[in-house]
Every structure is written in structure tokens, then in C-alpha cells.
Amino acid sequence: MPSGLPASEPAPAPGAPVASDGPDGAALSEQQADRVREILRAYPVAVELGERFAAAGFTLALVGGSVRDALLGRLGNDLDFTTDARPKEILKLVKGWGEAVWDVGIAFGTVGVRKHDLQIEITTYRSELYDRNSRKPEVTFGDTIEEDLVRRDFTVNAMAVKLPQVEFVDPHHGLADLAEGVLRTPGTPEASFSDDPLRMLRAARFAAQLDFEVAPEVVTAMTEMADRIDIVSAERIQGELNKLVLSQHPRKGLSLLVDTGLADRVLPELPALRLERDEHHRHKDVYEHSLTVLEQAIDLESTGEGDGKPDLTLRLAALLHDIGKPRTRRFEEGGGVSFHHHELVGAKLTKKRLRELKYSNELIADVSRLVELHLRFHGYGTGEWTDSAVRRYVRDAGPLLDRLHKLTRSDCTTRNKKKAAALSRSYDGLEQRIGQLQEQEELDAIRPDLNGDQIMALLDIRPGRDVGEAYKFLLELRLEHGPLGEDEAAEALRTWWRQRQG
Questions:
Q1: What are the angstrom distances between the C-alpha of 465 and each of 386, 468, 472?
Q2: Is residue 185 very low, low, confident or very high in pLDDT (cuts 50, 70, 90)?
Q3: H/E segment holding residue 492
């Protein structure tokens, strides 16, 4: 049982020293104690909530990622609590206290509360178990914080601060693992992953987010139990992949998924990029190239029109841009290797995979479009594109143009500095030409010189297929020659219509 502070002593104020409850007797460093106190100073709501629960005869503790991040010096706006109060009792305690309350997770013991600018989740002590053939966890509630912490995914997420007495609870050496930068499970990894197989993906996600190493026994269990991920819903898998890809070190997590065989089951196109190579047919390592492109795309997120925030669309496009290569690889005479039309095949594979992972239609369309267009620039050569070709490039990219710029630049991973510099200069030239044409012609909204109403009036026709065909003709004219003006466009349309009528 937690030793904490002597029961006879009064509960300390948030500024008082924080007691340690690690079974090894390890104490918080002064810096770590300061960080725990800092989160309570920053969020007095936590102590207030603890007092509210204590007055009703319940225990409450700040738990999981909130404690971990506080000890790492990362304060956020999301606070997680655990309690012995049952969900209905939690609702009674927070209604009228919180500015908004939601109970969409109440079946799993969780009640959400908004207080000021904080998003708070309060969850009854619980344990989760998966049936071998079920996609949903079976939830049972517990009575002690020790029961709750042992079911947590990793020891660094199995620390808590009891409130309002500010008692640090660490029965699984999470503090030591946090200092070491390692991910271990509170119990055996086999038992943990059997309870919730999604934790195997979380291991990769936390490795990427925190830049931590995963303990060897955890990696072994992930490898041996990879097939267990099949019972987890696509929506939950997508959520973990998103967090991983949007992390600071996605290569680390993605490599772990590939090495353990988990990627074969959730994102098989990624390990498929590890193409066999031999001494007679040489080509770059497509798998390593794709991870490098992802990292280089991340470096460009703060440039151009971006706001510097992680861009899921760009990152997925960078990761998947070459997934058409395995299916299009051909060995040529003389030792060469070709991947003709891999961008088109890759776009189709991207749509298929993202649909299976239940992404939104908008994201699927944007990512697959970027994959389809990522090679278009390489037809630009040394700048011999016509204005018409530049217009079509902008038109085809549409609102994805800035992302396409970043993806195309990221796709250069050659070690030949001279070649890399030449490609960069060439793309600089293309962007300059786009900028010049945009100033002259409003390329962001390329449209014919005549609209649908004008077309119908000029040709004396009603809405229908002929109007659409006329519109396409005028759009092609606009792309080929730039703005013509209404008079010249009208004359060209009349000529086209007479020829069409025979």
C-alpha cells in the first residue's frame, strides 16, 4: 500500500514537498518536485477538484500523461484524473462545477468536463480486457488506485498525484523509467498487450513522441503478438497512427512498427518498400528514402503558407508517395531499374489504404492527389515549360499547391550536392514563374473568360451537357493562352460551336 505522508499529519498545501511512493523508495528530485508543484500552481482547479471529491468521501488523483508531462516540464491544457467514484457519482460532483460536462465515454467510466480553458477527463478506477475475438474492451471498475495503475499501458503513465494532499504514487518505478527514457509495462508486456493490443501501437507512438527507447522484452512481445492487432478497430488504429506520424520523431516509431511486423498488419505498403536489391540492378533504398522524405517535409512545415503546425496531409503524402514502386518495378537491360507510372499506382493504393483506415474523404482525396502529382515537376527540366504548362500545374494542384511545393522539394534525397542544388534552383525558378503568372492572371482561381450564363445566352442553349462541353473548351483555351477577354473568348466559342454543329 502507498506509504505517502503519515495519516496523522495535515495535508500539505500545493507548495509543500511532494512525497514519493515508489516501491524502491526513490524520491523525487527537487526539480521534479518543483514540476509537480508547478502543475498544481498552474492549475489550481486540480486541487479544488480534489477537495470537492474528498468532501464527498471519494479519492481523486491526477494520473497518466498529465503527471508524466509535468515531470518532463511540459504543461498542457488536458488533465486526466482517476477516482474511486463511479461514473454517476462523478457526474453529480461535476455538474454545476464545470462549465460544460459530457458523458459520451461514461460506458467506459469516463466523464469529461470543461473548466476555464482546461479539458478534464475523470475516470473511475478500472481494468480493461479484450476477448480474443472482440474489437471492444470489456470494462470492469476497481476500488483502489493500485488496481488502476497496474492496468496502465506503460510505467511512465502509471504514476499519480493524489489530491488534495499532493501524494506522489509510483508503484511501478515509472519515475526511474522516465529518467532513463525507456518504455516498460507495469506487468508483463504479454499480459498488457493481451488486455489491449492497441498498446503495441502506443509503444511505437510514445517512442516517437517522447524519443524514448522501448525495452527489449516489450519489443519481443510486440513481435510475437503482432497478429493480436487484428481485433482492434480501424478507427482506433488510425488514431494511434495519426499521433505517431504527427510526432517529433516519426521515423523512430515507424521503424519499430516495421521491425516488429505490426506495420505488415496496419500499413503493409510501408514495409513493402524494402525492395530486394542485388549487385546487377541498383536503385536507391525506397524505404529509407521515404522516411527521409517525411523528415524533410517536416522541416518545411514552417515555410510557405503553413502555420508551422504538424501537417497530417503533407506527412502522409511524404510517407506514402512512393508506395506504387513495388508494383511497378521493372529490371531493364544494362542493370537499370524503372518504376514507370508508380505515382498513378501509388495514388490508387493510397486511396485504398486510407479508406480501410477510415480516414475522411477529404483527407483521402488530398493525400492521394499529392501522391499522384509528386513527379510532375520532373518534367520541368531546366525551365522549358510553357506558360500553359505552368498554368496546368497550378490548376491541377489547386489548394494543395503549397503542400505540393514542399513534397516535391522533400523528395530530393540525393547525396550528390551538385545535383541537389540544381534541382533546388530549378524548382525555385518554377515557383518564381508561378508567382509572376499569379500576379498577372490570378492563377489561384483559373476559370474561363465566360461563365455558364454567358455561354447559354451566347449560344442560345439551355442547361445541359453542351454547356459543360463549352465551359471545358473555354477553360482549355484559358489554360493554353491565358486571359483572352470576353470579346475574344466569345468569338472563339462561336467558331467552336459552328464547327461542332457541322
A1: 31, 5, 11
A2: very high
A3: helix 486-501
Alpha carbon 73 to its chain's center: 23
CA atoms within 13 A on the CB side of 10: 4
Helix axis angle for 44-55 and 30-42, nearest 10°, is 80
382 burial via Cβ count (<10 Å: 0-12, 13-18, 19+) = exposed
Which top CATH class is 1-177?
A: alpha beta
Domain ranges (residues) in the chain: 1-177, 181-267, 271-445, 452-501
The candidate with the shortest Cα–Cα distance to 1, out of 149, 129, 125, is 149
Of the pLDDT bands very low, low, confident and very high (cuts 50, 70, 90), residue 382 is low
Closest to 400 in 3D by CA, of 331, 306, 334, 321: 306
41-47 mean pLDDT: 87
Going by C-alpha positions, the residue among 61, 63, 70, 33 that lies closest to residue 186 is: 63
Contacts of 330 (CB under 8 A, 6+ apart): 337, 338, 339, 340
Residue 74 has pLDDT above 60, yes or no: yes
For residue 113, the cross-strand partners are 101, 120
The sheet carrying 110-115 orders its strands as: 100-102, 110-115, 118-124, 78-83, 60-63, 160-163, 167-169
pLDDT at 21 over 80: no
Residue 6, Cβ density class (10 Å: 0-12 exposed, 13-18 middle, ≥19 buried) = exposed
- The predicted pLDDT at position 22 comes to 45
pLDDT at 339 over 70: yes
Best CA proximity match to 156, nearest among 235, 211, 234: 211
Task: Extract long-range pairs of 480-486: CB within 8 Å, 24+ residues apart.
Answer: 480/388, 481/388, 482/387, 482/391, 482/437, 482/440, 482/441, 483/441, 483/449, 484/449, 485/449, 486/449, 486/450, 486/454
CATH classification code of 181-267? 1.10.110.30
Q: Structure pTM?
A: 0.81
pLDDT at residue 278, as a whole number: 45
Positive or negative CA dihedral for 454, 460, 461, 466?
negative
pLDDT band (50, 70, 90) for residue 48: very high
Return the H-helix or E-strand segment holding 338.
Answer: strand 337-338
d(CA 161, CA 64): 9
- C-alpha–C-alpha distance, residues 82 and 62, integer Å: 7
Which amino acid type is present at position 244?
L
Identity of residue 439: E
Distance CA 162, CA 21 (A): 11
